[in-house]
Amino acid sequence: MQLDRSKLIKAIKFLKPAISKADEAEQKISDKIKALTYIHVRIDEGKCIMTAADGHMGKRVILERSPQLLLEPTEQDPDQEFLIPRATIEAFETLCQKHKARFEKLAKIDHSLKFVDIFSDSLESHKNVITYEQPVGIRFPDIDGFFFANKSSVMNIRINPTLLRW
After folding, report:
1. For labelling alongside 1, which of 58, 61, 123, 131 has CA 20 to 30 A away?
2. pLDDT at 164 > cutoff 60
3. DSSP letters of the chain?
4. Rg (CA), the chain
């Protein structure tokens, strides 16, 4: 699925604090802990839904196709789910930032330079590909219920200030 580079960089920056930083000893103990060291990506009806959680917080970003891509006739991306490791997403963020600086002016002429591709086994930014493998036997926890209340999005969350730590 093709996504706008600058929106993806913002999404990764938003999600990174919620990706678990469990060390290898903790990951060997539990597959549930290991699953939290990944970003869960679901492509559903032309939307890319990225979710991260670390046991204390969960964050979700929904990225849609760019209007420029909607004008061009392309085949629809199949609905799919996959996990992207934390290290891979950090490396891809660095690559996207490097390419953004390089292609910002050129993208006014060639719009394809604005976009990156996300696949279940690789991330691609202008001919540079970062590949990764899907973990075997690891499922990301179903935390969809935390993002919705009464079948509508949660907009306002009341926080008790005495529970916050600075």
Report:
1. 58
2. no
3. -EEEHHHHHHHHHHHGGGS----HHHHHH-HHHHHTTEEEEEEETTEEEEEEE-SS-EEEEEEE--HHHHHS--PPPPPEEEEEEHHHHHHHHHHHHHHHHHHTTGGGT-GGGGEEEE-SSEEEETTEEEE--PPSS------GGGGEETTEE-------GGG---
4. 17
Listed range (39-48, 117-126, 136-145) with the worst mean pLDDT? 136-145
Q: Would you call 61 exposed, middle or buried from its count of C-beta atoms within 10 A (0-12, 13-18, 19+)?
A: middle
The Cα 15–Cα 23 span in angstroms is: 19
Q: Which amino acid is at 33?
A: I
Written as six digits, the tokens of 52 are 């991260």
Question: Residue type for 53, please?
Answer: A
Query: Which residue did the predictor score with more confidence, 153 or 66?
Result: 66
pLDDT tens-digit series, residues 65-112: 776 655 455 566 677 888 888 888 988 888 888 877 777 777 777 777
CA atoms within 13 A on the CB side of 118: 33
Q: How many CB atoms are located within 10 Å of the residue 36 CB?
A: 25
